[in-house]
Amino acid sequence: MVNALWKNIVDCWRDGHKVALGIFRFLIPIVIIVKILEESGLIPYLSMPLGPIMDLVGLPAELSLAWISCMLVSLYSGAMVLISLLPQLPELSAAQMTVFGVMVLIAHSLILEVRIAGQCGVSMPFQFLLRLLSGILAAFLLHLFLDQFQLLQEKATILLAAEPSATWGEWLMQQAVTLLEMYAIICAVMLLQKFLDAFHISALLGRVLGPALRLLGVSSKAVSIILIGFTMGLLYGSGILIKHAQEGTLSPRDALCSISLLGLSHSLIEDTILLALLGGNLWGLLGFRLLFTLVMGALVNIFYPSLERFAASPARSLSVRH
Predict the structure, then answer these.
(1) Residue 83 · residue 159 · CB < 8 Å
(2) How many angstroms separate the CA atoms of 172 and 303, rounded?
(3) How far apart, in whole angstroms, are the C-alpha atoms of residue 300 and residue 316?
(4) How far apart are CA 158 and CA 180, in angstroms?
(5) Sequence-ordered list of residues with C-beta below 8 angstroms from that of 284, at least 6 positions apart, any chain
(6) What letter does residue 270 receive in the DSSP assignment?
(7) Under-70 pLDDT residues of the chain
(8) Which positions, given as ranges, span the membrane (predicted)?
(9) With 0-12 CB in 10 A as exposed, 13-18 as middle and 19+ as buried, what is 194?
């Protein structure tokens, strides 16, 4: 029993170590670039183009740099940029960090994940626009709701944060500590995922969401694929989805609805924990994102006949296969 437990811990550490090193290859150069931009005073000017969008959702314009990093690379890179920016930002509320969290949870890693959608026989431009516009819309709606009812207006509790640094030496030390914290979090999340699987919590989530997905017109075969992506991540779910799409065992409608749902909501455990550590409210990050995803999934299903012409591309899936 003890040996099995220790083996699982070691396996989780190895998986986390591999993932962390892969992420840090992108993270470290990005953080250095952000520091150089901060020292040169260019950040306010670079954030100006997306300033109106950030203002629309109640966020400082400077946070657009963190969002761009999330979209182009990953959530972890965006998190590091956000941490680097914190010392020069105004005090952020829990509502603002929840709104930011929902926006980046929906619209992140677009270069990689939209390419995955293309392998499933779905239009990549459509998926890119769906993710991008959905992220902005979800953030706007959540901002309106929280602002209208004055919810989560207290100061955000950001567990991964950096203090203002006077010298490059202090800054380097802070970044090293933050990277170590993030390394520990990645390994801990891997262990948590194993724990949830061992106690069948992921399966419980599947039973809860399964009926709702079937109401959206998603076939029983596609439901199991979506649930894997919801709990374990887009790469796991899409791997199975690509296989079925290329073999022709999933209809174009199932492929489009499935990858759209997975794009809007995946890695519900790992990604949600990361944004909660950055000050987001857990129920807002998880509950609102899931609700928004199901509504958008219903709309994609309802309007599929109109969307089919430019949203689904079975020929592209076949070309990738060969």
Answers:
(1) no
(2) 51
(3) 20
(4) 16
(5) 98, 101, 102, 142, 146, 152
(6) H
(7) 1-2, 4-5, 8, 12, 19, 22-23, 26-27, 38, 41-46, 161-166, 182, 186, 189-190, 192-207, 209-210, 217, 219-221, 224, 228, 232-233, 235-240, 244-246, 312-322
(8) 20-37, 57-83, 95-116, 128-146, 222-242, 283-304
(9) middle
Nearest to 245 by CA among 231, 257, 234, 229: 257
- How many C-alpha atoms does 105 have within 13 Å on its Cβ side? 35
Paired tokens of 110? 């677009």
Q: Report the DSSP beta bridge partners of residue 155.
A: 93
Cβ atoms 264, 292 nearer than 8 A: yes
d(CA 284, CA 276): 10
The gap from C-alpha 2 to its chain's centroid, in whole angstroms, comes to 35
User: What is the pLDDT, as a whole number, of residue 91?
Assistant: 92
- Residue 230 near residue 205, CB atoms below 8 Å: yes
The structure tokens listed for 14 are 């190895």
Whole-prediction pTM: 0.80
Condensed to tens digits (0 to 9), the pLDDT of residues 219-233 reads: 666 776 777 677 766
Instruction: Take residue 272 and report the two structure tokens written for it.
Output: 């949600």
Give the pLDDT of residue 317.
Answer: 39
- Structure-token pair, residue 230: 């919801």
Identity of residue 314:
P
Q: Are 62 and 109 in contact (CB under 8 A)?
A: no
CB atoms within 10 A of CB 311: 20
Main-chain dihedrals φ then ψ at residue 53, nearest 5 degrees: -70, -45
Measured CA distances, 47 to 55, 62, 85, 97 (Å): 11, 5, 12, 18
Q: CB–CB of 127/114 below 8 Å?
A: yes
pLDDT of residue 35: 72
State both tokens at 76.
């972890």
Query: How deeply is 74 buried, as exposed, middle or buried, from its count of CB atoms within 10 A (0-12, 13-18, 19+)?
Result: buried
Cβ–Cβ contacts within 10 Å for residue 312, how many? 23
CA-closest candidate to residue 186, choices 2, 21, 3: 21
